[in-house]
Amino acid sequence: MNLIALSLKGLRRDLRASDVRALFVALALAVAATTMIGFFLDRLDRGLTRQAGQLLGGDLVLEQGQPFDDGLRQELRQAGLTLSDQVDLVSMVSQADAFQPAGLKVVDDHYPLYGQVRVDRGDGIEKLAHGPPPGSAWIAPRLAQLLDAKVGDSVQVGSLGLTITGLIDREPDQQAGFAGLTPRIMLNIQDLDATGLIRPGSRIEYELLAAGPPAAVDSLGSRLDTLREAGVEIRDVRVDRPSLGRSLDRAQKYLSLAGLAAVLLAGVAVAMATRRYVDRHLDTAALLRCFGASQRQLGQLFAWQLAWLGLAASVVGALLGLAGQAVLLSLLTRFLPLELPAPGGMPWLMGVLTALAVLVGFAGPTLLRLKRVSALKVLRRELDPIPPSGWLVVTFASLVFGALLWLYSGDPILAAGILLGGLVALVVLRGIGQMLMNLLLAVLARLPQRSQNGRAWQLGGRQLARRREASLGQLLAFSVTFAAMAIIALVRGDLLTTWQAQLPTDTPNYFAINIQPQERDGVESLIDSAADSGSGLYPMVRGRLTAIDGKPPKQQVPEDHQTDGALRRDLNLTWRAALPEGNRITAGEWFDAGTDTASDGAVPISVEEELAGRLGLSLGDELTFTIGSDSVTGRITSLRHLDWESFQPNFFIIFPPGALDDFGHSYITSFHLAEGDNDMLAEMVRQYPGVSVLNVEALLEQVRGILGQVTRAIEFVLGFVLLAGVSVLYAALTASRPARAHEGALLRVFGAGNRILARMQWAEFALLGFASGLLGAALAESAALGIYGWLGLEPRMHWLMWVVMPVLGAAVVGGIGFVLSRGARRQAPMESLRLLGET
Hints:
By secondary structure, this protein is α+β, with helices and mostly antiparallel strands. Strand 18 (622-627) and strand 19 (630-642) form a beta hairpin.
């Protein structure tokens, strides 16, 4: 208890010291970054768990491309489940002269099984436990804006006119991410037939939603297995918990890693500030040893001091994290179709553990040196080398940091790769930074000394050279920070712009789907009369892969891909006599136009190579597809590479002509229209209301909006990274304050004024910032080249970044360093010289 009381007294006294303030700020930033992400992800996870059935739509969801029979419904009801039918499709919706592709959600009178629909019917938002009645429609506000429609207006869906009776604020089973790009319209299932949209070959998903106790779902185990083998996609709320989409999943990982980058930079600041903390307490430690304190008591005393400091920083950091996660939620609102629970306590505990890991790993080794101090060592201002136990502490802290990487990224391989790759990159960057520092110093040595500015730059360079190790550490920390910010800027604007610039000017910007055979000639004539270019019409049949070489697909597919989407949904099948444009044969041979069916009933087919790789398919394998109540078997005779970025209709599976003619089918095509040329589209909607036209440019604009939201959230987190980088500079200034003050006092004794001292310190920090910006530009350029290669884009240099980042780095680091070192310049020479013993 005496040690605890003494530690509290010492901490109160130390709070006036700049190094303790630096420690506090660095730890608070580390905790704020991790708790902000932790609170955000924890609320998402608990919200998804609590509302899983609501988000999924039921405890059990069955989905296929055709209506479910009444016999299955009867089985599910007898098992004790409540049922609701739902149909999803995409179609054109029009109001007056405005038209827009929309996602149709067709519901019955039992919808929703869980939760309530939030709808504005003209008198404010209401919570309703039912869908729209027959003859009416509820639409999303975005669709209302695009159509310039309001409650009470009439909207045309296919061949049916419906009255808008409400604007959808939130659906209980609304899916997030890119699945919801097209604005939503909800109508009653009794109106579906009258729309004329249910036609052979149309892209329609029939869903049967069921709600009931777990025992009822368990009793259907064997029946559900039979349905899966028959090609029905089944989602069980206990197994297939809904997610928020790949885009938000990636954003979560990115945000987590960005938060850990702030932790790492804060750790560097802690290490720098701890050195100054130890220097100040050498005399205290020596006196306590003289009064009989043991090494163990010294270690416990300073450990308690830092523990109290870490606890206080954790509280402040947690408060900042709470505020930060609220900002994140506001930035990512579009991705969050659920009400999140209040923040829990686990993220705060993780923040405390993070602070302790940072303290143990980055401050522990230096404190171990402090407890071994002797009176003679203090008089000589020397410290023992780090003991073996110190290196054990560093190793332990590295493992803890790796565990945090694993925890926040959710990927052990990624965590190990970042940890090991970071160590290797640190060694490489250190070597490059050393060469860059030497080059700058060599250039400065050749500057003329006739002017005060020239002498100031040379003195600033000498200051960097005198503290080379500390300068290298700051150089690496700031270069990584600048590189992270630059990469975000490139990803936000340049990559998408470059990708679009590489597309030909006549790249298709519209897709037309659900074209019936009897409409083919008319639609093709309309497109040819107005479009600049087109892909031609492709027939399309919906079929489910139900057998590979006569066995269920999951028995033949590699274990890692047994949940592949190609096995859980209907695939779009087509036939073609000639190899389509943008396709290239990589194995086997393309079938001839006159190819006949083999004697065993199999027809030759061509398969996309990536799909074949995932499913473990090769030439000669036989694939059986179920289409309605019939099936067709094809033998793989070729594998193809596709250009997915061509905006042409692409298909995984292609049959020869004649193999699928007897099945109900529709047509799909893509074409390019000049901007503002919408007369043909309006005419197509009037003549063929069942044809759905998708504006790819509109979808890309919505994608940009989503990416913009995620990017703003990432930039917000990277603001903490930048603050952590500033804390590194603050800690470095704190650690070197006695040396700087002493050097400044000596220069003033020999005649240097405040102006030359100010110029020298500005030059020192500006040089550090310039070198950091230059190295950061190199890092960002390397990362951008890798991203370009991954996206298949043509590499390019960003010359402007190489100019802006060094200048920006010099201005930012130079300005911050100049302001923070102002106190040392104003200190009296005699007071500064007294600090000689602390250097």
